[in-house]
């Protein structure tokens, strides 16, 4: 437990706050509301894109903000999921990552998360609930995708790479060894699906910026997560919890552990914090 009542709770969504069926339990809803009523800000910090945040938008009060795309975007959930800040991955940098992974892991397929939507190669596994804006070779998509953002341009938030036969952790280790000099590479999926952001971009670094704007120190933050893309955030926060279902590397990075996401592990800790302080 933190030594004093925290000022901010930062929680991942999938595998952490959400149950496996992607629902938010009534217990968790009540715990989030109680934290806000006690003056503790709650930030959702996720690898999800802004358009996948409708499920939890009603549970962010006060500030209305969430950190999406592994730190590449800050989103106003009170304004329809509008991206208010972005930390883009340069397209030329993404091309370096694509080239490196094509050579090191033949058979890899790529997708891009832009501020105007999702684009992927023909061999990339499609998301039927979230169809691509365009489909084509990564090199073409990185060169030609256009659209409108608030400043008149489109920003690349994240490059994704999928491999159908490599083990997830093996693919991650290979990608970091061959392309880690170009981008921050992590994963949040149980499959061999990697996510690449600009160097220095992570859940932790964007959360730190949001906290600095509020005069909140790392020691005043409690964080929750379950997958490798949460590791930096858990290590940065003054108090952090790996879920009972967490990846072993996440358990090593966190200062504590709670029960699994299907057992409302985040809610259990929030309840204990509010009862102790």
Offer a concise description of the structure.
The protein has 277 residues and is of the alpha/beta class.
Any key phrases for this structure?
277 residues, six-stranded mixed β-sheet, 10 helices, 14 strands
Describe the structure.
The protein has 277 residues and is an alpha/beta fold. Helices cover 32% and strands 23% of the residues. It contains ten helices and 14 strands. The protein has helices at residues 13-17, 26-37, 54-57, 91-104, 138-144, 168-179, 203-213, 231-236, 248-253, 265-276; strands spanning 8-11, 41-45, 65-68, 73-76, 82-86, 109-114, 117-120, 134-135, 156-162, 183-187, 193-198, 221-225, 239-242, 256-257. The strands form two sheets. It has an eight-stranded mixed sheet with strand order 5-4-3-2-1-12-13-14. Strand 4 and strand 5 form a beta hairpin. The longest helix is centred in the middle third of the chain and has 14 residues, at 91-104. The radius of gyration is 18 Å and the shape is globular. The relative contact order is 0.17. The mean pLDDT is 94.
């Amino acid at each position: 437990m933190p030594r004093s009542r925290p000022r901010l709770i930062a929680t991942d969504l999938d595998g952490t706050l959400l149950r496996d069926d992607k629902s938010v339990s009534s217990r968790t809803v009540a715990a989030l509301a109680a934290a806000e009523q006690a003056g503790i800000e709650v930030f959702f910090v996720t690898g999800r894109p802004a358009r996948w945040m409708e499920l939890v938008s009603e549970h962010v009060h006060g500030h209305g903000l969430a950190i999406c795309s592994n730190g590449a975007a800050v989103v106003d959930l009170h304004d329809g999921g509008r991206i208010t800040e972005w930390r883009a991955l340069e397209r030329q940098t993404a091309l370096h990552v694509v080239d490196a992974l094509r050579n090191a892991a033949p058979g890899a397929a790529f997708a891009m998360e832009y501020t105007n939507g999702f684009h992927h190669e023909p061999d990339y596994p499609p998301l039927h609930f979230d169809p691509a804006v365009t489909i084509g070779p990564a090199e073409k998509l990185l060169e030609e995708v256009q659209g409108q953002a608030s400043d008149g341009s489109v920003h690349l938030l994240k490059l994704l790479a999928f491999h159908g036969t490599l083990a997830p952790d093996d693919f991650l280790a290979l990608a970091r060894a061959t392309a880690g000099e170009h981008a921050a590479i992590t994963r949040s999926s149980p499959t061999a699906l990697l996510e690449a952001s600009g160097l220095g971009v992570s859940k932790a670094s964007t959360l730190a910026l949001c906290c600095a704007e509020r005069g909140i120190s790392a020691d005043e933050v409690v964080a929750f997560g379950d997958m490798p893309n949460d590791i930096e955030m858990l290590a940065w926060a003054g108090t952090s919890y790996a879920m009972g279902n967490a990846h072993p590397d996440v358990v090593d990075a966190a200062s504590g552990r709670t029960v699994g996401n299907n057992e409302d592990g985040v809610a259990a800790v929030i309840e204990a914090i509010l009862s102790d302080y």
